[in-house]
Protein: Putative tRNA (cytidine(34)-2'-O)-methyltransferase
Amino acid sequence: MNHIALFEPRIHFNTGNIARTCAATNTVLHLIEPFGFEISDKHLKRAGLDYWDKVNIVYHKNLQDFMNSIADGGQLYLVSKFAEHVYSDVDYSDDKKDHYFLFGREDTGLPEEFMHEHRDECIRIPMNDEHVRSLNLSNCACMIVYEALKQQEFRGLELVHTYEKDKLK
Structure:
């Protein structure tokens, strides 16, 4: 199973987009406190997150709480622009294994000491950083979870939809 973990997310729109991706891909969403926004019915409705109840969300009080929750045999990946390993070069094909993709705060990323402790688990998305400091968090989460799903042959997802008024027929 795939898991996306957000360390102290600051921007509710990113978290909402990632939650939608998780709902669409049967991916577990881990939210690590504190947040830079309020999670309440009022705020969720205003953001149009009417699918929030369809997302498997696990809340964690802090990073250590999240680390303690990783299933035996689970694989942790820290997503960072500072990593050496490219995300698409990693083997995620075992869909029986728990793959945890941990993303840092939008403004400061993951704690540096924590990254050093897990240097071998760090992965990156290649980019030209001469002109751009970083990629959007929700885009990154989507890219990485879909790479994992591609390698897992999209098991558990519908590959073809049938609609009453199919625009392609």
Remarks:
- Helices lie at 12-25, 41-46, 63-69, 112-117, 137-151.
